Amino acid sequence: MRYMCLIHHDEAALAAAPPSLWGEYAAFNEAMAKAGMTSGEGLEPSSKATSVRVNAGKKTVIDGPYADTKEQFAGYFIVDVPDLDAALDWAARCPSAQYGTVEVRPIKAWK
Question: What is the rounded CA–CA span in Å between residue 19 and residue 22?
Fold first, then answer.
């Protein structure tokens, strides 16, 4: 089953993280590759986000992220594993789990 793991973290906490974090990410991405998966991608800071809403056919463009929260959406990766427990294990291995939350969601199979 495929799961998307959405990385949410406090951008200020991540900015203050030790430089070793990027080595941890390299090891995490290597482990994913050895397991036959590809790592996802990170995102630019939420300050570079633009959000779009459509209400009654009128498009509204908003500078910044959709929600003003402590944690921002920072990236994602997809795992193809036997079950939710295995997906949660991968989420816990993600270095950003130390600085925020990794949300795990099953990917819907459209038929």
Answer: 6
